Amino acid sequence: MALNRCLALGTLCLLLAAAGWPADDATADARARRGPDRTYAERALSLDEAVAQSERRHNARAVRAEEKRQGDRVEYRIRLLGADGRVFEVRIDAATGREG
Questions:
Q1: Is pTM beyond 0.85 here?
Q2: Which among 13, 17, 33, 69 would be 20 to 30 A from 47, CA to CA?
Q3: For the chain, which residues make up each domain, given as ranges?
């Protein structure tokens, strides 16, 4: 029971952080200078949707989720805890929604 609460709280914290919650004024200023996130409109699914999709597909619970950018390409990396206790990572292309 305590492990489930801990995982749920950890996942919530990760999702809030991934949603772009500014860590401080310097981070918010850097985002403002960079301009709007042009790649967001091109995404097939959000990080939250990718987490839900991977949890369903692999019958597992997400323990960590993050967004990685490589130029204009956005990839979600989701670490999952399987029912058998195995921890593994999946990568999902944000533009296509495909796992790779």
A1: no
A2: 33
A3: 2-93
